[in-house]
Amino acid sequence: MLVVAAILVGYGLGCAVTGYYLVRWRTGQDIRALGSGKVGATNVGRRLGRGWALATVAGDVGKGALAVTIAHELDLGLSWTAAVACAVVAGHIWPAQLGFRGGRGAATAFGAALALAPVAAAGALLVAAVIAKITGRATPAGLVGIAAAPLLALAVDGRAAGLAVGGLAAIVLAAHRDHLVSLGRTGARPPDHHAPHEGIAVPVVPDRGS
To answer: Which has more confidence, 126 or 191?
Structure first.
């Protein structure tokens, strides 16, 4: 029962979609009907300003880390802690109270990964930031960083951590499947005019829904 409760708490934390509720509180509007239609920091920043964009990143990253910290404190073991981590990301992407229309989970997954495998998470962020700097394209860079995270966790923390972070990466990559399809088309260049927390959140910063 404790494991089930922890997973439900994780999902509930994820459902607290930071950008959506900040904009609803400040303006009474649904951020999903504004601008890019995404709930991440970039779209929030366009509506409310840079400070609120940073608050969105902090809230999304923080709830991911909090869910994993709770699982650690309950001593659930790595496998069930990974399940809680996946639940918080799933809650952000598919929040029941918002009609299962949330963000894309990158910042929340980053927070969960920081608590699960901090060195690997930091390394993945660095990879994404370097690629974004070189190419000027945040979304592909973020996708590479996300894909690299499980490999880094495997190398630094071992097989179990690699699988745990791999689960997070799989969920986030699935949420970005439209970007992956676009990138896979010959000569196709998906829109990448957003800063990271609007497509991918290298909390360097994505947002195609964060």
So the answer is: 126
Measured distance CA(198)–CA(19) in Å, rounded: 11
Q: Residue 59 has which token pair?
A: 């809230």
Q: What angle do CA 25, 39, 134 make, to 5 degrees?
A: 135
Sign, CA dihedral 123-161-56-128, equals positive
Question: Token pair of 109, please?
Answer: 């997954």
Backbone angles phi, psi at 206, to 5 degrees: -95, 170
What is the predicted pLDDT for the residue at 44?
Answer: 96
Q: Which amino acid is located at 40 in the chain? A: G
What pLDDT score does 131 carry? 93
Cα Rg of the chain (Å, integer)? 16
Residue type, 113: A
Q: How far apart are CA 55 and CA 180, in angstroms?
A: 28
